[in-house]
Amino acid sequence: MEWDYWGVAAAAVAVLAAAVLKAALLAHVWMQEGKLQEEVLRLLPPGDFGWPLIGNMWAFLRAFKSGNPDAFIASFVRRFGRIGIYKSYMFGSPTIMVTIPETCRQVLMDDEHFITGWPKSAVALIGKKSFIGITREEHKWLRKITSTPINGWDALSMYLKLIEKTVVCTLEKWTAIEQIEFLTEVRRLTFRIIMQIFLGREDDNITMSLERVYTDLNYGIRAMAIKIPGFAYHRALKARKTLVTVLQSVLDKRRASKAKGHSHKAMDMMDILLDVEDDSGRKLDDEEIVDTLVMYLNAGHESSGHIIMWATTFLQENPEYLRKAMAEQEDIRKHMPPSQNGLTLKDVRKMEYLSKVIDETLRLVNISLVSFRQATTDVNINGYVIPKGWKVQAWYRAVHMDPEVYPNPEEFNPSRWDNLVPKAGTFLAFGAGSRLCPGNDLAKLEISVFLHHFLLDYKLHRVNPRCAVRYLPHPRPIDNCLAKVTRLSTM
């Protein structure tokens, strides 16, 4: 009798728990859809909102932390078909995810109906006055005044000398060390380069202090916004505070120096941001300058560092492609005039096969896996409606890993780019539309210069060549590519 009693009680508790859970799920759906008009509700894309409060974030994080990141979008495709548009609940907001070239292109190219829509947590880390937090008009103006000093021919020619000198010196130092975390050291290299471009004459102590906290910042951008000690987002907020303090200190010194009439013949980006003004004489305030620097310094070394590491390892794992890349670089070096000291931009423009290697690495690694927008009005895409005010995620990774877009997408194959002009929306490594990454040319220049010297003169010996990969915030070997760098001439 006693066992029967406890069995009935357990069953009753289970039924009650199931009822409570069902009610919570229904309430969660009603909270997202309850205010929508019937016509809009009827045309919502298929999908689900996940669990109350956390939505689909648990499934997203589980997929990426399990080592199978593509399982997240694959679950929507499996349940609802390859329609390329699904409803979900991400980063605390009802969200429409677009996942095929056609739907991504429509969202990314339509500035009238879609504005930037990064999660509030990410804006808090990068800055509300940075590119991801400002209006379309402000973005257009800020991009105009910062893109030419970064991507213009004269600027890239000047940066090329700086990049090459830093790369050559750093590679030689690595050969004297028994083992290095290759990814860690490459990130430090690219951070030193971007620091010299943006804060030219600051000392190494500032560079080192900023590089350390940027790691914490990156881990928090795609984490759940939990402001509790021990969680990634909490550490990222502390990192943001440190970054702002350091950059504000540098900015104060620059303003004081300018007030005294002092100047520096080599203008860096901070100098440019201090001096720039619009037609009405308006200048950037301190918050605008600091947030712009936080964004550029972060984006300017993370993508370059990771792509350099992956391109290097991919080539060494694929001798056929390595031989082609080396042959091209050998030919470029062979035809340099005796009087020429180092690479020129014309030389870099000749690196056609290496450019395919870089593009294939960008596609396969997916440093930028998703972009964020927000609908300004009800928008119809492929017969479905995206409600006004809802967030929209353009899933770059889903496009790049789609076998209908790229056959055998998990295979590293630079030759797939032979005679290929990507259709709109199929290659999104740097985004698309008016918000295309403003530093894309500088990033490819860094990567090309490094690979040129590394492929011709060095080799990487990985300690754990089959090391597992961690996918957040960016794909990387869990040992950070522990390796020994040797000179080819001494092997």
Automatic annotation (TrEMBL):
Keyword Transmembrane helix recorded: yes
Chief subcellular location: membrane
Key words, A-Z: Heme, Iron, Membrane, Metal-binding, Monooxygenase, Oxidoreductase, Transmembrane, Transmembrane helix
Membrane topology recorded in Swiss-Prot or TrEMBL: Single-pass membrane protein
Record flagged with keyword Lyase: no
Cofactor: heme
Annotated TM spans: none
Pfam family, any one: p450
Location in or out of the cell: Membrane
Gene Ontology process terms (BP): brassinosteroid biosynthetic process; brassinosteroid homeostasis; gibberellin biosynthetic process; sterol metabolic process
PROSITE patterns membership: CYTOCHROME_P450
InterPro entries, A to Z: Cyt_P450, Cyt_P450_CS, Cyt_P450_E_grp-I, Cyt_P450_sf
Entry GO terms, CC: endoplasmic reticulum; membrane
Binding of heme, residues: C437
MF GO annotations: ent-kaurenoic acid monooxygenase activity; heme binding; iron ion binding
Domain of life according to the entry: Eukaryota
Pathway: Plant hormone biosynthesis; gibberellin biosynthesis; Hormone biosynthesis
Family: Belongs to the cytochrome P450 family.
Protein's name in the database: Uncharacterized protein
Organism: Vanilla planifolia
